[in-house]
Task: structure prediction
Amino acid sequence: MHLTSYLAVFIVVGLVIVIALVSWYKSHKTKERNKKLYKEFEDFVVENKLTIDKKQTLNKNIIGLDRLNSKLIFIDNSVAPEKRLLINLADLAACNLKKEKNAKNGHISSIFLHCIFKENKEPDLKLPFYIAGHDDLYKMMRLSKKASYWEKTINIFREVPPGSLESH
Result:
């Protein structure tokens, strides 16, 4: 083999090794972030004496539902410092899926649930599911489907009186 062939093989092998290391590092960081997020979530659940039936991660955020006590938990890591929200579903008048578009190019810039409280003393909440530039574009459709699922779930359980799901 010629020197250029050896050099080409060396470069290709080097690139494969670098790509494998970067991929492993990214995967490792994601696992560590999710582990920390689940720990924060579980600590918040225990602190508030909740029984979570459903939970789901949304990139760097997590959402959970306590059907027995009609409570919703949302840990929002899209802002610093993170927000830990505990929402009494009976206090909500409505929860709607919203998609905001960028005025310049018309692309979706954010997907969130807009929660409106019955009492005007509580400000409306935006629970972010997708934020352009913050979340991966290829995850937008999956996050939109998750937002739609949670919109329906919240609206079903906000109308169920607390304690009515207990076994008799």
In short: Residues 17 and 23 are 10 Å apart (CA to CA). The two ends are 80 Å apart (CA to CA). The chain has a mean pLDDT of 87.
